[in-house]
Design brief:
With about 450 residues, this protein is of the alpha/beta class. About 40% of the residues lie in helices and about 15% in strands. The protein binds ligand F0G.
């Protein structure tokens, strides 16, 4: 295998703490078999999320010292606005404290009972913010996306035919906006092609429906387009992203991912009238429109981080790292979502532990085993996160049962991930010993964050 070259050197280090198997058994039991309830100090390698967990660069830390903390009209806002405007081409740019704050504001204005909001695939907070308003969130992935083995280059694509059917069945007046999530997180960090964005846009234009991007991993998506879509090899990831945004009427981005920041995000719009209404809610819920729930120094970190996230050497390393881990796990025979995605490795829990039915959370069984065995924290993206309960109490399983090993940006080395891959291979070799879990308590929405479980 070629050397994986990290385009940075390490200046500050944070020690990791190993626990014993006995300690982890107690800690997991106290956490009610939900790894969101663990203390991060009790985790050796934390692959819970790639969100807000990036290591910042010297340039980002230096920029933070330049933060202008004025309530209104801060210099840091204008620097942030210039970068976001250059990327998205959108005239109205609102900072928010993170992605879901943008979702809350947007769907409060566009959602509501009777409304339907389609996407290639909604992320959990996006879906929850839509459903909270009474609207319906509909996923329209291409069929290949639902088969972990199919090696389609753009599994994040939306099924354009089903989109048109949906519009004709319900009428365009019930569909206030259509989303494309780039990359598609819940089905494996898979990219959307520009060809697909153009096709979706064409259909939407015919019915007068605006297109919005959920753009938190847009740099990774742009890099996949450069690698895989004919005609884009010579374009820079930044230019490719500019073309992506050119088809959209608006977007929101959690800068905790491809903003390389630990907090923050934005909502960007083309429509002046919608922007005015967003501005009012922003003041109510987030803050004055030139800081939107962030400190001036956070805006600086994002302005710098966004530009670094599009650097080609960085993206080559980033995407190369994820596919390296996929290669190791494939060698161990572990069933995965293929091809490798941008921010995480996704294990196919259904084939890993076929003896555990969806209602007993096969993905969560693997997550618990990985923590017990090696102190590694992953996250379930399956029946616990996205399953539903039918009116008669039956469990409705989502199409995929996955375990996500999300790779924080610029944080772990190849040896850290080799350790994780070896640990997972050990568990796979003894997969018949895995046991399912039972839910003891759950919240009315986003239940995976706080649920309490027990092993069967
Ligand atoms: N959209 C997508 C596609 C996401 O992955 C996330 C967050 C959000 C929106 C919400 O952004 O967290 O800043 O409020 N994803 C994280 C994850 C939490 O672990 O995948 P946020």
């Amino acid at each position: 295998m070629p050397v994986l070259f990290e385009p940075f050197r390490i200046k500050v280090v944070e020690p990791l703490r190993m626990t014993t198997r006995g300690e982890r058994e107690r800690l997991l039991q106290e956490a009610r078999y939900n790894v969101f309830r663990l203390r991060s100090e009790d985790v050796l390698i934390d692959l819970l999320t790639d969100s807000g967990t990036a290591a910042m660069s010297t340039r980002q830390w230096a920029a933070m010292f330049q933060g202008d903390e004025a309530y209104a009209g801060a210099r840091s806002y204008f620097r942030f606005e210039e970068v976001v405007h250059s990327l998205t081409g959108m005239p109205y740019i609102f900072p928010v404290h993170q992605g879901r704050a943008a979702e809350h504001i947007l769907f409060t204005l566009l959602g509501g009972h009777g409304k339907i909001i389609p996407s290639n695939t909604h992320f959990d907070t996006t879906r929850a913010n839509i459903e909270y308003t009474g609207a319906e969130a509909v996923d329209l992935p291409i069929p290949e996306a639902l088969d972990p083995e199919t090696p389609h280059p753009f599994k994040g694509n939306m099924d354009v035919e089903r989109l048109e059917e949906l519009i004709q069945r319900h009428g365009p007046e019930r569909i206030p906006v259509c989303l494309l999530t780039v990359t598609s997180n819940t089905i494996g960090g898979q990219p959307v092609s520009l060809e697909n964005v153009r096709a979706v846009k064409q259909v939407l234009e015919r019915y007068g429906i605006p297109l919005f991007l959920d753009a938190c991993r847009v740099a990774e998506n742009a890099y996949f387009i450069k690698l895989r879509e004919p005609g884009y090899a010579e374009r820079s990831p930044w230019e490719i992203a500019q073309e992506l945004f050119s088809y959209a009427d608006g977007c929101f981005m959690s800068a905790k991912k491809d903003g390389l920041a630990n907090i923050g995000g934005f909502l960007a719009l083309r429509d002046a009238e919608l922007a005015e209404r967003v501005g009012h809610l922003l003041i109510l819920w987030e803050g004055f429109p030139t800081y939107g729930g962030l400190a001036g120094r956070d805006l600086e970190a994002i302005a710098e981080g966004l530009q670094e996230a599009f650097q080609e050497e960085y993206l080559q390393y980033r995407v190369g790292f994820v596919s390296r881990v996929v290669e190791w796990l494939t060698e161990a025979g572990i069933p995965l979502v293929k091809p490798a995605g941008g921010h995480a490795v996704f294990v196919d829990a259904r084939r890993f532990a076929p003896h555990i039915p969806p209602e007993h959370f096969p993905g969560q069984a693997i997550v618990c085993a990985l923590y017990l065995h090696a102190g590694v924290r992953a996250v379930e993206v399956g029946s616990l996160m996205m399953g539903k309960r039918a009116a008669d109490g039956r469990h409705l399983a989502p199409p995929l049962e996955l375990v996500r090993l999300a790779i924080p940006r610029r944080v772990y080395t190849e040896s850290h991930l080799r350790y994780v891959a070896d640990a997972l291979a050990d568990i796979y070799a003894r997969r018949h010993e895995l046991r399912g879990l039972r839910l003891l308590r759950e919240a009315p929405f986003l239940r995976h964050f706080t649920a309490e479980l027990e092993p069967l």
